Amino acid sequence: MRLIKWIVILAVIVVAGWSGWWYLGATGQEKGVAAWLENQRDRGWQAEAEDVSVTGYPFDFNLVARKIALADPRAGWAWTAPELRADSTADTPTRIAISWPTEQTAAVPGDRVSITAEKMETLLDVRPGASMELRQAASEVAALRLTAQTGWKAAAESLSIDLVERGDDIGPENSYALDVDAQKVVLPKEIVAQIDPTGWLQPKIDRVTIIGHGAFDAPLDRKVIEDGVAILRAATIREAGFQWGDMQLVVRGAFEVDPNGFPDGEIEVEAGQWREMMRLLIRSGVLDVGTAEAITQGIEFLTGGGDELKATFGLKGGKVRLGPFAIADAPSIAPPM
């Protein structure tokens, strides 16, 4: 009987301790969300949630925030959603499965966009601590639809984005691997008409792919998310490109960012129907006629012409180079050091 008595007492102590720990975790999550919303309001944002609650005792934390409204008046964007769910387990509270609502609304100056999806889920894994340094962020979206008040529409059959921290043994400090795959992306017809007023270009992009990794000047953490600033210092592109009707583009290469903020490295480009791509870049205003002609002449001189392109472009001193020739200005990737 005495043994049974001590077993019961021990069980009560364990249950009471676990219950207290779960309660502290649950109230900590509720207070953490409330504190974050208040911090954003102190920064000048609108940041509201009608109700935040945590259930799931004894083994889970199931957080639900209802009637959420976020807006940054200085940046000019806003986002509202009827509900947002964030589920985690008691033993891994910083590994969170986020379920987004099937209907959301985003606003930018001059327009408001309705966002719908059959599925929109994110796995967020962060390092414990106030800075919440990212270990992984993986999102899956199915049947995405964007409908704007101004009339334009866009869609994607599926979209997956996976951003994972790389270990110090396989990459430089603050390095992350990125894998993006989008299937059957439908662009707004207004954008397609601006790119190609002849109607040759179809509105649906069959596939968009990005596979690679990059190193930043600081960890991707809560501050980066709140400020929206991440400074890239180096990148390796294993494969990036698209299949868009008869046009195909595949880019591979690597570069570092020089002290002036320009890429320094080499990019290998394989393209089908590259001449048509050049014409579309001119029509859309991405390239002026003079720059496009210089790039075209350089490609033809070094490759012998044809509709299939395979060439290596150098990136150096703020210029894009094909062989010994500087054929275009390189984009600025980061602010000068």
Summarize the structure.
The chain is built from 5 helices and 17 strands.
Summarize the structure in words.
- 23% of the residues lie in helices and 50% in strands.
- The chain is an alpha+beta fold and 337 residues long.
- It has a six-stranded antiparallel barrel with strand order 3-4-7-8-6-5.
- A hairpin with a 2-residue loop joins strand 3 and strand 4 (92-99).
- The relative contact order is 0.06.
Topology:
Layout: H1 2-42, E1 46-55, E2 60-72, E3 77-89, E4 92-99, E5 103-108, E6 111-116, E7 119-126, E8 134-148, E9 153-165, E10 175-186, H2 189-195, E11 204-216, H3 222-227, E12 232-244, E13 247-257, E14 263-272, H4 274-283, H5 289-303, E15 308-316, E16 319-322, E17 325-329
Antiparallel strand pairs: 1-2, 2-3, 3-4, 3-5, 4-7, 5-6, 6-8, 7-8, 8-9, 9-10, 10-11, 11-12, 12-13, 13-14, 14-15, 15-16, 16-17
Global Rg: 25 Å
Helix content: 10-25%
Morphology: globular
Strand content: over 45%
* H/E topology pattern: HEEEEEEEEEEHEHEEEHHEEE
Tally the beta strands.
17
Low-confidence stretches: none
Strand line-up of the largest beta sheet: 3-4-7-8-6-5
* Largest beta-sheet characterization: 6 strands, antiparallel, barrel
- Give the distance, in angstroms, between the N- and C-terminal Cα atoms: 74 Å
What is the arithmetic mean of pLDDT? 89
User: Which class best fits the helix and strand makeup?
Assistant: alpha+beta
Q: Count of helical segments?
A: 5
